[in-house]
Design goal:
2 domains; about 290 residues; 14 helices
């Protein structure tokens, strides 16, 4: 009798485990719908970039191209001079992002692992820097850059990029660094590490997911930044990709296949950077929420 009851209970539990959960099914359906809504504009852009001019005018914009016109990419690359503008953006991004990450990580280390007068006041001042819209500072920024003779220079664009980016990065990295146990600092100091040794040998390796997340977010923000670049980079030879796309739209706004081809090429570096750091990205976004 007991064995029969146990068998029945085990059979019932197995049926419950294999029975689909309505909540899980609803979540998967919601996720699939959200993915479709997110992918739809990108698919539309890719389809449009691969269509010929007659196919674009005669066919539906949401249907795949009848013939793949890869020549649109070569034409957009040549007419938009994307090689030069892409190189400008790449030099600026690959210079600004590591420098900004170095400054912000040192600042976050000082605010989380060291003690000095007015520390909380300094943190509040840094947080205030994250609340200032870039548009408000464009006028004074232009005046300062002009008087310093830095218009149309890499240094003229790098300084405001770093200045506006560091407060937000310190705010993010402070959470990541706070999640690292302070006992590791004490153990490193017992072994003879200086403050910089603790920063370099303990904090940075353990905060790598957070640093990678900040690196991706900062690279995307720097690559797509438009307002400051429009004010500082007034010479065509120093333009970045966003400025080049604006000019390309003005010249070829009716040629949607060429315009979308230029847009697709402009986002490829961002996609590549994300793919390189994606294994750290999710962990980096959540690790700083453990302790703040």
């Amino acid at each position: 009798m007991t064995s029969t009851l146990n068998v029945a209970l085990q059979s019932s539990s197995r049926e419950q485990r294999h029975r689909p959960d309505p909540l899980i099914i609803a979540l998967w359906i919601s996720l699939a719908i959200a993915v479709l809504f997110w992918l739809a504009p990108f698919i539309f852009i890719v389809f449009t970039s691969l269509k010929t001019r007659p196919d674009l005018l005669m066919g539906s914009p949401f249907l795949p191209p009848q013939a793949l016109a890869f020549g649109n990419y070569a034409t957009a690359w040549e007419r938009g001079n994307l090689a030069q503008y892409g190189l400008n953006s790449l030099v600026i991004a690959l210079t600004k992002v590591p420098l900004g990450l170095l400054v912000s990580s040192l600042g976050a280390f000082a605010l989380t692992r060291m003690r000095f007068p007015l520390q909380k006041s300094l943190m509040m001042f840094i947080l205030l820097g994250t609340m200032i819209p870039v548009q408000v500072a464009l006028g004074p920024l232009f005046t300062m850059i002009l008087k310093a003779g830095l218009l149309n220079t890499y240094l003229g664009i790098l300084l405001p990029y770093i200045g506006f980016g560091v407060p937000y990065q310190i705010f993010l990295l402070r959470g990541f660094f706070n999640s690292i146990p302070r006992e590791l600092d004490e153990a490193a100091r017992i072994d003879g590490c200086s403050s910089f040794g603790v920063y370099y040998r303990v904090i940075l390796p353990l905060a790598l997911p957070g640093l990678a997340a900040v690196f991706i977010l900062d690279f995307v923000g720097t690559w797509n930044e438009f307002a400051i670049a429009l004010v500082v980079l007034q010479s065509r030879s120093t333009w970045t990709i966003p400025l080049a796309l604006q000019s390309f739209q003005g010249l070829y706004g009716n040629n949607y296949n060429l315009l979308t081809a230029a847009i697709v090429m402009s986002i490829l570096p961002v996609v590549i950077v994300y793919l390189l750091f994606q294994r750290y990205f999710i962990a980096g976004l959540t690790s700083g929420a453990i302790k703040g």
